[in-house]
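Many introductory courses stop at the sequence. We go one step further.
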Amino acid sequence: MLRSGTLLSCVLASSGFAQAFNVDAGGNFAEPPASGYGAAAQQLGYWNGITTFGPVRDLFGSLTSVLFGTAEDGVFLTNIAGASADDQRLMGSMVGVQPADPAAVFINLEPGLYNVYVYCWAGNLLGPKDVTIRAFTDAGQVVGGVSYGDAWPGGHVLGETYDLLRVEVVPGGNQYLSIFIQAPGDFNVINGIQLVLVPAPGWAKITPLAALVVHRRRR
């Protein structure tokens, strides 16, 4: 008989959660957020603390064949007045980004649609900025951005502390996702990324089972 934890792992893996990742850029130099912190995506699970290129772990902490790396232009640590402990862990460690260099790259992703939460905020370090964020896959380019001030807004705000982009990863090649963060005439930072696989149509039939397993584990 399967234990409830094993069953939950099977359910989540079959529904695409095996391709969901939380990454704290610059996390090798500071403690990453706790697994109970979902950030803007409300995606609980393991946080990878990664700066150099290498394999990433899924939400369960299991090593995957997906590779991730950030730009290697210095890591910055800063204290953010008014931030919660986990907001501080995610946003207070950041990697410097030059406009012409990729800020972050995933390779070996499963094909599909992804919601990509890109965290970019350094107001108390760089001052107010208008930043363009570009996401590239073999399917094309998606453009977004953030505009932030010098004071932490008290929590995550779409278009200020992060942007949400939807991209498609198509079969073949490296099945990659490349992120560029561009502030005209200056470098900027990347604080982290959450990659969420958009559920297939059958997900609605699986969700109650996953919820039931979680309920049983907590009793």
